[in-house]
Amino acid sequence: MAAYSYWQGASARRPFASGAPPSSADVVVIGGGLLGSCCAYWLARRGRSVLLLERDGVAAGATGRNAGFVVPTTARAYSEVVRQHGPAVARAVRRLAVDGTRMLTRVVVDEGVAADLRSTDLIELALDGEQVRLAKREVELSVADGFPMSWLDRDDLAHVIGTPLDDRIAGGTTVSGALANSVAVTDGIIGAAGRLGAAVHTGVTVNAVRATPSGVRVDTNHGVVHAAQAVIAVNAWSGELVPRLADVIRPVQGQVIATPAMPALFPAGMAAPISDSGVYWQQDPDGSVILGGCRTVTAPPADPTGQVPQPEVHEALLRVLPSLFPALGPVRSAHSWAGAMAFTADGLPVAERVDESVWAVGGFNGHGMPFGAIVADLVAEWVCTGVRGTRLAPFALDRATLGGSFA
């Protein structure tokens, strides 16, 4: 079990400046994951002097420790979002995910990012009658609202998946999305921000962010940085810099394994409703299968921001593929890692101005990849114009549904 992820180990990342950052900038962005990197990129494209500060390294948190899925849907089942937030909000958030997936792909292409971002189908299996009913309802609601989604029966799946199916698999849903090396994508976007003039400093711990009469004061382990505005994009660690977010955006540990290279079996990204938190996997072009989930099979760790994999979760992940595809036999792990995601009570992220000149964004519920580029663009527009666009309205901090219980 390793302290770094499959993507972090496989990606050659560009060096960034460390040590004391510049003492001033128009906008300071705190956090070097996908959201922070995209914020720096869009702000620099709008002509702002940008300084991005990252405590560890680029994509050191959830972005670099995920399974590489870019799924253009809501984090929770669409039917659940409709029930909890209403049809209009559900449609708006789903459309944001669809448009965000396209935007991320466009940025990668336009900026010549050398990253493995593959457009492909994403399939979620259904294993029994109730799951089939819910899955078909998900297709019905999605299509009615203009979001393409299809049902695949067992015979359809048998033609897609390169190994025999367990008898429990009745079918599955499919949407078009993407799979990515999330570290390479983020590194490329932050490199593009640098070409536009953004300064990036890693190894900088931000201790406090305070609005002042003249702008924002950012206290770091290397001294003070003064800026006109700041964007906090530290996700699971949001409560450290914005105390009132501590009970709103909460860290949840996720865990992933990578197998040794296997024959080509899974041409699409896959998921299955096994365990309360589900499982999901993709097969990398090198043959490795990257598989995550099962976090609810044991009690959460005392420190959910830690990066130590839990043995019970590891063993549960190893059992997933043999249980669904018996011909595979036992599966072993070549690599295992953990990382902190950030969850909210109602399944939607937060994007809010938390002080006069300070914005905070986070809590994507393990589903940040389709939203990173577009939410960052909308936040950058808000920072530059002072006007929150209507597309960010569902992510307001004062929404009533944030008072619920956490998943």
From TrEMBL:
Signal peptide: none annotated. Keywords: Oxidoreductase. Residues 26-382 form the FAD dependent oxidoreductase domain. The keyword Oxidoreductase applies. One of its GO terms (cellular component) is cytoplasm. This is FAD-dependent oxidoreductase. Pfam families: DAO. It comes from Virgisporangium aliadipatigenens. GO terms for molecular function: oxidoreductase activity.
